[in-house]
Design a protein that fits this description.
This protein is an alpha+beta fold. Helix content is about 40%, strand content about 20%. The protein has a 6-stranded antiparallel sheet, with helices on one face.
Length: about 140
């Protein structure tokens, strides 16, 4: 089982990461973006995770991972039972969540420093599938 101290050690070692206490929850942030949130009872933790991959994660290990509260389901977020994690899984989970909160260049530099493969992510595309230039052109046509 991992502890808050284990999480704190890993999270605060990452560039731009800082700790905050919000409504009795220990949270780890990059700027204003929260990427880890520990429950007040310290048995569960919410973490940044792509919502497109959330159901597969939970289905694969339902005793370890679970859905966030209904109000948080719209976010890139999942939850984990800390008793079900080992240190290696915690390392991966914290690093992956942090990568979602920092600029790509910062994440790539840290992954390279650790000798990990830097994923070749496609550029972010808005949910409507339009690029910024397409959206701007469409607005011009409407006027």
């Amino acid at each position: 089982m991992v502890t808050v101290a284990d999480i704190r050690t890993r999270a605060l070692a990452l560039p731009r990461s800082h700790e905050a206490l919000v409504r009795d929850r220990v949270k780890f942030k990059v700027g204003r973006i929260v990427y880890l949130s520990i429950a007040p009872d310290e048995t569960t933790m919410g973490f940044a995770h792509p919502k497109e991959e959330r159901n597969a994660l939970i289905t694969a290990r339902p005793t370890t991972f679970f859905m966030p509260s209904p109000s948080d389901e719209r976010y890139n977020w999942a939850q984990v039972r800390l008793a079900a994690l080992d240190a290696e899984e915690l390392d991966e989970l914290v690093l992956d969540a942090w990568c979602m909160a920092v600029p790509r260049g910062v994440a790539a530099a840290e992954l390279s420093r650790r000798g990990l493969v830097v994923p070749d992510r496609p550029p972010r595309v808005p949910t409507d599938g339009l690029t910024t230039s397409s959206r701007m052109a469409r607005r011009a046509d409407v006027r």
